[in-house]
Amino acid sequence: MELSFAILAIPAAIAIGAISPGPSFVLVARTAVAISRADGIAAALGMGAGGLIFATAALAGLHVVLTTVPSLHLTFKIAGAAYLLYLAVRLWRGARAPIAAAAAPLARGSSRSRSFAFGLMTQLSNPKTAVVYASIFTALLPPDQPAWAAASVLPLIFAIEAGWYAIVAIAFSSDRPRRGYLRSKLWIDRIAGVAMGLLAAKLIADAR
Hints:
This protein is mostly helical. The chain has twelve helices and no strands.
């Protein structure tokens, strides 16, 4: 009974975290509006892959490593902050550019593969996510759980992360949100850039 509860409770807890607004939401929504629905879904799949990596790492004991080797945790935080700052600068500098030019950083080469990579890197840019996953698993999974129980949670986590952001991509790529974005592109991009910058600053502050 305890194991069945854990298998149901873990995806529910992850779903609550995924729905909370953050850099992942901003990136997927903007990708879907600025480039295409397919690119937004590709970014959503990247988010799902990032969540799957964090979940696998949490099951493998990454939380223990990060807490026992502070310098490694610090490195993850600085790398994540640097990536978020990169996104913030790109959004701010591209705010006045026409929609095609602003999307160019994502559109070079195979746009869908680049959108997937941006989604993956954005998800992995916050090392706190790894700690959250590890905390949820530690709290809900019994210590003597069979291997199949832990493994069964992983595809559910991918489905939740990718599924939620795919819904975001589909919603924001519809005609009305796209028209609204085109009318207010300057301020939407700058607000998104500031949000990314603030998240980077928070990571740096946590690192200090």
